[in-house]
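Record now logged for everyone:
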Amino acid sequence: MAWLIKKLAELSAWGFALIVLMMVFEVVARYGFGAPTFWAHEIAGLLGALAFLLGGAFCMIEGSHMRVTVLRDKLSPGLFRLTEYLSLGCGLLYLGALTYSGWLISQRALFRFMPDGSWFPERSGSSWNTPLPAFIKFALFIGAFLFLAAVLRQFYLLVRHRADINGRPE
């Protein structure tokens, strides 16, 4: 699972480069040619959302989450380990709830049908009116699930004593 999280996060990080290129194109098209795009902002929002949603799981796998450890660094190894259990336990509860609610909202956004049976997912309401909001909600579910899996992996490593004092895998 860790390799999948890393690959997805690295792939989605390239979205930021695409966002920059799209915004340059948008500015040139809008102010240089008086012909703004109708798609750049929606696609940029999707790419940015994907990268941020996968970033949490990636940071957990890499052990690069920002930590404020002023007090924890002064604790004995036993108390330090207890704080790791508590923080990972809170993360499991939060991400479990976020994964569940992400599934519920993505179901409501994606699985919508017209009376004639045709598929009609939640739409943006813009001039382009894409179903991107529905896909972003599904990406929230996937991102929360992967983050939950990463925290569960870290908790497992801590329980099996295969993590060093900083919580990173040995």
